[in-house]
Fold this protein.
Amino acid sequence: MEIGSIFEIDPAAVKRGGEIETFSSVHVDKYGKKERCFTASGREAIELALISLEREKPETPKRCLMPAYMCDCVFLPFLHRGWELVFYHVDRDLETAGEAVFRLAVAHEIGLLFIHPYYGADTCAGLRGQLAALRKRGILVMEDVTQSYYLETAGADADFVVGSLRKWYAVPDGGFVVSDLPLAEDVLEPGEEYAQQRLAPLVQKWEYLREKERRTGGALTAKWLPKKAEYLKSNRLLEEELDRYQGVRRISHISKEILSRVDEEDACRRRTENYRMLYDRICGMKRLWPILLRDEARGPLYLPVYAKERDSLQRFLAERGIYAPSLWPVGEENRHSLKGDEGYIFGHLLALPIDQRYGAAEMEQIAEALASYEKQPVIGIRADANETVAAGHMMRCITIAEQIKKRGGQVLFITADGQAEDMLIRAGMEHVSLHTKWNCMEEELPVLREVLKLAGIRTLLVDSYQVSSAYFEQLRPLVKLVCIDDCFDQVFPVDALINYNAYHTRFPYEETYGGKTRLLLGTDYVPLREEFGLTHIVDGQDAKKEFSVLIASGGGDIQNAVLGILQRAVQIEELKSVAFHAVVGVYHPQGNAIEAFAKTHENVKVYRPCQDMAGLMADCDAAVSAAGTMLFELSAMQVPTVFFQSADNQRYDREFFEEEERMLFAGDMSQDREACIEAVCDGLKRLAADAALREQMKGRLARVTDGRGAERLAAEIMKL
């Protein structure tokens, strides 16, 4: 069964006519305010509250203090009406220190304090003691109960209480505002047309789910398969329209009629029961954990959890028909106000569905999925990056790791030292250092064994030229072993071996490993990042005025190829108008010298490091690269390339990429640097002058790889 996402509505239950004479809600009435108004949405309720405040209290400064952890849609009414936003901080328990809020309110001379109890718990309890003192200073209070509609302790000290009803019930529209101040109901516009539009995708979802239930084995006819995408798209477009709308609409007759039949106490009870039932099942899990206390929330909107790998968990659940939102995306307005805790919240919080549509069976379905996620294997990756070991080794491992995590797996990088730490942090990878010598791998085995045991690693991928057969022999009793081997210098006792290079056919892998090792060979397994997709490729690049060239030589570049090529190219008449984009790794030994050279040449730009390699490739007409994985990236991006050899293990790339002029080979930089640099420049002159050649090369490169090698590798590694 599918769980979560937007509410579905049975079309037979919708009455499309007649005004409800008296419409009320006990959970709206409980705030005890004199004035109340039902609007089409929660953000329109905020808009009406602001209009009313500005009318009744025109002297109020239009400056609002609100929590930095907040949905960006809440900002919209304030921005529409010209309010300045100031933000206060929320800790990882979703709570705020009242004294800090008081100081900020006074320091910034705010007119309005916005508070928001999260997920059915009174997370504002710590600042409620300050509200009376703030109101005495003329500061008004608005409380948004969109996540805590059933909370009894909310709203008593607020001048305005606002909330969304469509988040809680199967209605096409609905929000409310209550206050002791008069509400500007004269600005309200009819909401019937909008409600009818919003009703359509909710009915479509109901029809889709009913059809899915009627089918055995989960199979749907071609007629019904597109319906899900259709109603989700319609709902998204209507949400975008709501973001653009700056007025205030009344709640529709349809929604009032539906709400008049809702048993609110039963809905609250079911939500609370579901929350506690699921809470009990997930307590003690290591990859996710509840944020609030078990009995702290009453009828909450969701069960919020922190997940170590939130995006991985969200995808894992979605693949099993469980749709848990990550609340919320970071807005432009609060982006610069986030400190450590809010950054963690936005990056790790996932909201598990527990609403009244569901009961024990659905909570069990979610719990089983989470238990399955918890048991996903831990994959260790042993790799290094430093001044000697090119960053490409670490980058390809990170690419494979990202695909493992997408499948719910856990990844721990293991390095000899801390030199690759910044790279792994940027990639969001967990890592541990052995504090050993990177080029003496057998000496690390005693420490490595302890790490494997403590981390619960089941499979270890090793990517290093320093590894030996003896190293693997000693690890075989502990874990499944995978290695990346592009040299065939040794025979490794491993469970799986990867050589994604086209030249793998030169070596007798099948005869040597004889079925004992899973062989993952050839360009189907090239581990390219997802950004290297054909969607980046732009036609008509050759029509640009300026011919642009990407130059890269890996992180090591021990022959100083990048600087040498640049120094020679700027002297050649045919290349003086070329724009050169030099990519320099963080460990590049001549990085400072290349940057200094660029400062004296306007047509040279340096990227250290490059944050969007695929985008840069897409913008360039040609490239110069050392042999290696980057040649496959350039193939995926269809960039005509001049390449050279810079290390012994790259010698076989020449045969494949030189064949049919897939790329132009310029020689071995390590054997004759000057001749190789001259050949690179000759190749660039040829590419710049021959558009037909470039087009032919693009077609040949498109057939090299489909860019899905990392997905295939991740799937094979997780099978071991």
Remarks:
- Confidence is low (pLDDT under 50) at residues 538-543.
